[in-house]
């Protein structure tokens, strides 16, 4: 009888980890309260409904600026929510999000000189797990932000490159170009789904310029990777860009409208720039200031020092490398370290310049523990010392994580939690001749799919539009209100009645707050619907 090889004996352990860890995160998703985040209430629920039912142009910006985001990524969630109870749907979300463990685990095994056998497997698993318990990722488990789902595409692209080290540096050029094209295509898919993923397109593509090898070879690898990014983007994003250009004359509508000057919006940028550093010193110290105050980059409060620690370790490693004091027997693959460091630094720099919103660098949060250990692997000290320092820093990262807020959650309903979103709209005398206005800035568009489909929803007050603006959007909105001959209602949280009082007179309207009725729903019990009358 032939005994199994050591590798074969490890297969059940590896398979168990790659199956068990995602299931663990799926269970976390249903242990935590149900997702009820601002973006879900604003557009993750409405936008796929609007796409599937062809409501673009029928409703006018009910989910405010995000009405014009690519809804493709939201469609599977919306359709699944029609078939599965809330807890099952959250379990599935957590399962997918937990699958980030797999590329992180494989990257650790490929990058680091780990001990043979189960010890090395468990070490790689520990590094991957530390990557997944970041203060940015944990609050997003079971939520609809998708940054920790698109991370699968980004990490997958990086894994393709790192796994092809020998091929990319000295293998047949045709095969090498095919490999980087595939990596680029994965990132391009992510960019098409969600434009902020573009920062990782920068890192994955231009990081290839920093791998070992002749410059022209690295140039063509980077160039073809860029072509792959374009190809992936064409699959998931080009159709929406084309629609925005056709409908509004701005492919990124309403963003960068100071450049495209679409008549439908003001000639403004509309981009959220509140977190972007305003000086060189602020940018240089950003990751370290972030440890002390996460609110400089995030809407919620937490503490996580992994990115600052990765920056510090990489700087120390760079000093050793420049001084030609690298380890004689490195504890990490040189190709992998160079590419991971370059791709991460470039992605971080692009993110800092364009967004500086922490959620958008979720893949970098996940990679940070591996970056720390891999960079230490080049230090000119003993292997035992490198292992001790790396382990100590990972423990420090993990135990100092503090999560002070979440992204707004709600208690589960009975049983399996009911449906993810439940709304009980009122009965209208003639829904075909009913118009509903949405005032204020609160996210309320999630209620629309539960109303009769013949009712149009118009939002005259939002981040995008105000009744005193001189844009085609406002002209269209006013014309629709003027031409309407049936009943008009306004829908808003009770605490935002001031938006109705301030803006409706500019539209020749007034709300009858005495006739308001609460709108029963499972996400926001402050929403009301009130009759509106025309002013003489």
Summarize the structure in words:
This protein has 536 residues and is of the alpha+beta class. The protein has two domains: 6-31 and 84-236 and 272-403, no CATH class; 431-534. Helices cover 52% and strands 7% of the residues. It has 21 helices and ten strands. It has helices at residues 6-31, 38-44, 46-53, 75-83, 86-98, 101-111, 118-132, 147-163, 165-170, 173-193, 198-206, 215-236, 238-248, 257-260, 280-292, 306-322, 334-354, 362-376, 383-399, 472-483, 497-503, and strands at 34-35, 302-303, 402-403, 409-410, 434-438, 456-458, 487-493, 509-511, 517-518, 527-534. Strands 5, 6, 7, 8, 9 and 10 form a six-stranded mixed sheet that branches. It has a two-stranded antiparallel ribbon with strand order 1-4. α11 packs antiparallel against α12 and α17 runs antiparallel to α18. The radius of gyration is 26 Å and the shape is elongated. It starts with 5 loop residues before the first helix and ends with a strand. The model has no long low-confidence stretch (mean pLDDT 95).
């Amino acid at each position: 009888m032939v005994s199994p090889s050591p590798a074969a004996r490890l297969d059940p352990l590896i398979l168990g980890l790659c199956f068990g860890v995602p299931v663990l995160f799926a269970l976390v998703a249903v242990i935590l309260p149900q997702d009820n985040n601002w973006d879900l209430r604003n557009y993750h629920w409405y936008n796929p409904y609007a796409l599937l039912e062809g409501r673009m142009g029928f409703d006018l910006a009910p989910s405010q600026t995000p009405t014009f985001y690519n809804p493709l990524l939201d469609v599977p969630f919306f359709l699944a929510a029609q078939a599965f109870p809330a807890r099952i749907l959250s379990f599935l979300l957590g399962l997918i999000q937990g699958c980030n463990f797999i590329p992180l685990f494989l990257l650790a095994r490929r990058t680091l000189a780990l001990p043979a056998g189960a010890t090395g497997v468990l070490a790689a698993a520990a590094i991957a797990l530390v990557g997944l318990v970041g203060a940015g990722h944990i609050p997003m488990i079971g939520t609809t932000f998708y940054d920790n789902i698109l991370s699968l595409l980004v990490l997958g692209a990086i894994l393709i490159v790192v796994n092809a080290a020998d091929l990319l540096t000295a293998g047949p050029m045709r095969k090498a170009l095919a490999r980087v094209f595939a990596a680029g295509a994965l990132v391009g898919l992510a960019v098409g789904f969600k434009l902020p993923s573009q920062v990782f397109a920068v890192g994955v593509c231009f990081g290839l310029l920093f791998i070992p090898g002749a410059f022209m070879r690295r140039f063509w690898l980077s160039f073809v990777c860029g072509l792959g990014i374009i190809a992936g983007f064409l699959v998931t994003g080009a159709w929406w860009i084309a629609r925005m250009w056709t409908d509004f004359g701005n492919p990124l509508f309403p963003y960068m409208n100071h450049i495209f000057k679409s008549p439908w919006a003001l000639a403004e940028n509309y981009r959220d720039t509140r977190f972007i550093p305003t000086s060189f010193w602020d940018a240089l110290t950003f990751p370290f200031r972030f440890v002390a105050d996460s609110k400089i980059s995030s809407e919620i409060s937490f503490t996580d020092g992994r990115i600052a620690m990765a920056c510090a370790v990489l700087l120390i490693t760079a000093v050793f490398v420049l001084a030609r004091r690298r380890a004689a027997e490195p504890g990490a693959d040189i190709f992998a370290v160079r590419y991971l460091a370059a791709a991460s630094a470039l992605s971080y720099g692009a993110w800092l310049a364009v967004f500086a919103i922490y959620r958008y660098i979720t893949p970098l949060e996940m990679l940070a523990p591996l970056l720390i250990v891999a960079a230490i692997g080049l230090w000119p000290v003993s292997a035992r010392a490198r292992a001790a320092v790396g382990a100590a820093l990972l423990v420090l990262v993990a135990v100092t994580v503090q999560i002070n807020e979440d992204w707004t959650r709600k208690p589960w309903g009975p049983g399996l939690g009911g449906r993810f979103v439940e709304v009980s709209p009122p009965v209208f005398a003639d829904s075909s001749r009913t118009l509903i206005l949405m005032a204020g800035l609160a996210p309320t568009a999630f209620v629309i799919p539960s109303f009769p489909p013949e009712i149009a929803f118009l939002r005259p007050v939002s981040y995008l539009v105000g009744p005193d603006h001189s844009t085609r959007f406002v002209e269209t909105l006013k014309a629709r209100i003027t031409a309407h001959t049936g009943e008009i209602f306004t829908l808003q949280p009770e605490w935002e009645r001031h938006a109705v009082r301030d803006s409706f007179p500019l539209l020749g309207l007034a709300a009858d707050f005495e006739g308001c009725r609460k709108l029963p729903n499972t996400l926001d019990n402050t929403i009301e619907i009130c009759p509106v009358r025309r002013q003489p």
